[in-house]
Here is the input.
Amino acid sequence: MYIIFEGIDGAGKSTQIEIIKNWLIDNGLEVETLVEPTDSEIGVMIREILKYPDATTDRMQKTLGLLFAADRMLIMDKLDDNKKVFLSDRSFISSLAYQEPKEWIETLNRYVKKPDLVLLLDVDVENSASRFSGEDEFENKEFLTNIRANYLDVIKNFDYEIINANNGINKVSSDIKKAIAPKVGLCKDCIR
Here is the structure.
């Protein structure tokens, strides 16, 4: 099972992945978490580029699209393990939301595994801005307003749930558990 957590910066993906990982393990499932960019050399390069003042320009977006696709391919073999539940902080869906042109990003990511479930942690840009560090060029309100709209459009092509991430941590976790439970054979109605 390959479950993707998506959303703009400050949506709470990292926090929720940790909570959901522990919940799944407590319910007897084998879980592995993934993060994009990875800790590979390519991932390190991506993290540095995200801090460049011109990171949001068209040229840099195309460069990042290439690098993210290359970095993503490094984890694809792992996803063949059908005994595990994989929880990923971002995926190629992020590239579809953040980089353009869409057709090119789809071509670059043609060979990546498609998720079994996409969880879009949808948060207002104002709330997200209060949660992130502001280190990356991507962490600005105008840019994130556009990306949030892109996400809402892009996820329509997948099995997805929109989770209201403006709520408190416990409510968000409960909503995520209810979305995941039927996918992994747990009782949805048993979740508070």
